[in-house]
Amino acid sequence: MKKFARITGTGSYLPPKIVTNFDLEKTLNTSDDWITARTGIKERRIVTDENTCDLALEASLNALSMAALNPEDIDLIILATTTPDKIFPATATILQDRLGASCPAFDLQAVCAGFVFALTTAQQYIENGSAKNILVVGSETMSKIVDWSDRSTAILFADGAGAVVLSADNTTGIKHSKVLSDGSFLSSLHVNNNGIDERGTIQMEGNEVFKIAVHRLSNLAEETLKDCSMTSEDLTWMVPHQANIRIIKAVAKKIKLPMDKVIQTLDKHGNTSAASIPLALDEGVRDGRIKKGDTLLFEGIGGGFSWGSVLLEY
Hints:
Elements: E1 4-13, E2 18-20, H1 21-25, H2 32-39, E3 43-45, H3 52-67, E4 76-80, H4 91-99, E5 105-108, H5 114-127, E6 133-141, H6 151-154, E7 159-169, E8 174-181, E9 189-191, E10 202-204, H7 206-227, E11 237-240, H8 245-254, H9 266-269, H10 276-286, E12 295-302, E13 306-313
Parallel strand pairs: 4-5, 4-6, 11-12
Antiparallel strand pairs: 1-7, 2-3, 6-7, 8-13, 9-10, 12-13
């Protein structure tokens, strides 16, 4: 019998410190109106003394609680992050130890597409019978690699974590997934470090990134629906990577999906990279908008570029 990979628990965590657009006005040549109009962001959460694993731990505990599982029930941990606690070991192994789990654990890096890549990877373990329950986490402390004097990036990126428990199911779950990469766009969005001894900061060509993201995500969303013999009318919700409201609206328009069927947290969360989709998913689940049996489309794109989608029944 075919096994499906189904989300059975969601969780999230945001650091308590809030930085508003008005706060950024004090140090940057910008304004609340300017940031809101161009990005859709009003505020973002920023760590003080927390690390990526600290955020991941809280989100993971919340997801495990919803799934009614204990850490010892988890067969694998995959943590998507661009901002690991250390060069090594993998932050996932630090998380495994702090949870008290005993399963294999590894990090996965695909920047803002990281959660989609991690979910797609976990799907393979479930479907081939190698695992029954997998903890998939997206956790980021992007503020640590932001140049806070650079208006083009300081207004965008933020910190947070989201997690899901993916479990084997006999009836439904992930129906379609696809990931892609094109490394020729390195200069459009990258961190300018010159080796492992440098952390570097995010460098971005905003207009170029916008055009690439809209084009790639729109095409992928259309291909995903076509591959599943579906239209946007069959979707209950799209849960996109929260990068820029104009990108989200452009993709929704291309696939003829009304914005009232899109989960948006960008105004409160900013761009939390690999954490943004599971953060938005958890908010939608916990406030009752997302219900069991709903058809969801995840899609995200990150520097490199890497992009992907997952279509599933929740």
